[in-house]
User: Fold this.
Amino acid sequence: MMARPGNFRARWAIVWGAIATCLALIVPAIPVTAQQSGGETTQMSQTRRGPVTNLPLPRFVSLKASKANVRRGPGLNHRIDWVFQHRGMPLLVTAEYGHWRRVEDQEGQGGWIYYTMLSGVRTVSVTRDDVRLMSRPDPESEVVARARLGAIARLGECVPGWCRITADGIKGWVPRDAIWGVAPDEMRQ
Assistant:
């Protein structure tokens, strides 16, 4: 059976659109050099945006569900590689495709997950054992509590070197290098 020419072009347009979308998912942020008045050159990073949500990529989110399948590709027809089972777990969104988001956990493991399994609520995971939560962002301030390795807490404000977290109703400041789920230079109020 011979395809009609109009159908052939439509099919190729769909194929090329899919290829373009896949390429957009893997292209990194492009460094841009800008010349300021006075001849100074500064390095700026162009923020990459998700093709579906127009939100920055990569970005941190959290797992909304207590159990979520993580697939090899963006669709129900793809094999399940992982099952995330920790509600509130911080994840890094690295790509978008339709209703699917490619995510990674703090160990770099992940895949594609359906968008309704994710929340914009920011959480972090404690990366060291026996981390002291301080009353102020100062290592000499009063210790409010201690957090264990792997503890999940809600992220509050962040200042250079410190972030405020909340877990089980206890709030305190921790060194930024003791948590995962926040960018190294990210500031929050």
Observations:
- Helices lie at 5-26.
- Residues 1-45 have pLDDT under 50 and may be disordered.
